[in-house]
Amino acid sequence: MVRPTDLPSEPGDVAGAGSAAGASSDSEDGSHGLTEADLDPDPIEAFRAWLAEAVAAELPEPTAMVVATATPEGVPSARNVLLKALDRRGFVFYTNRTSRKGTELAANPRAALVFLWKGLERQVLVTGRVESVDGDEADAYFATRPRGSQLSAWASRQSSVVAGRETIETWWAEAEEKFWDTPVPRPPFWGGYRVVPDTIEFWRGRPSRLHDRLRFRRSSPTEAWVLERLSP
């Protein structure tokens, strides 16, 4: 299980999420629903509050999110990754830049994120453009990873076809030998992506499929957020 201490501890990151401020304290059956007054008017703060409640509820992998990307031709792909940082700029995750998602983001820098906290009858959908995390920030995060994970970043040719498991284990052993007596640096092909949101939608499960959906949207990061209710 991912715990708050596994996330960056800088001010404004995920681990600093507040508890119940700006979030609904409804029962898990969703019968009390979600109103506009239940959410902080800043959707980033509203998200922090919901994430903090998911962590407090000890839900499995509360920072897990589906990341959906697409080719310029519109061919989609999706996978689960972990949210590693959050501030007013956006939602951050890390990966191999030569992976399928990395190559798709290079050609089509937009993505959608989905967080599902089924135990709370909540999910959040984020859409927006994607930008690369700068090298210093990526280096700082990479230094916090377990050594085995650092070595795996060097060993993995993510998304490439391999002859068998033995090939991957050989690459890992080569990385282990290369860095056996030194700190493992961040590979130049590995880094972070930040999804800069233009929509953040909060979903609350309700009986008879009459769910509550509240969406914040804006046209650019300099504009104010607009809150609107969507039909379930």
Give an overview of the whole structure.
This protein has 232 residues and is an alpha+beta fold. The chain folds into two domains: 4-143 and 190-230, Roll (Pnp Oxidase, Chain A), CATH 2.30.110; 144-185, no CATH class. The chain has helices at 43-56, 100-107, 135-142, 147-155, 165-178; strands at 64-70, 76-82, 85-87, 90-96, 110-117, 122-132, 190-204, 212-217, 226-230. Strands 1, 2, 3, 4, 5, 6, 7, 8 and 9 form a nine-stranded antiparallel beta sheet that branches. The radius of gyration is 19 Å and the shape is elongated. It starts with 42 loop residues before the first helix and ends with a strand. The relative contact order is 0.17. The model is unreliable at 1-6 and 8-28 (pLDDT under 50).
Q: What is the typical, i.e. mean, pLDDT?
A: 88
Radius of gyration: 19 Å
- How many strands? 9
Give the total of domains: 2
Which superfamily, in CATH terms, is the homologous superfamily of the largest domain?
Electron Transport, Fmn-binding Protein, Chain A
CATH level 1 class label of the largest domain: Mainly Beta
Overall shape: it is elongated
Q: Give the DSSP E fraction (strand runs of 2 or more residues).
A: 25-35%
Look at the helices and sheets and give the structural class.
alpha+beta
Main β-sheet: number of strands, strand sense, barrel status? 9 strands, antiparallel
CATH topology of the largest domain: Pnp Oxidase, Chain A
Which consecutive residue ranges, at least 5 long each, have pLDDT under 50? 1-6, 8-28
Give the assembly state of these chains: single chain
Question: Into which percent range does the helicity of residues fall?
Answer: 10-25%
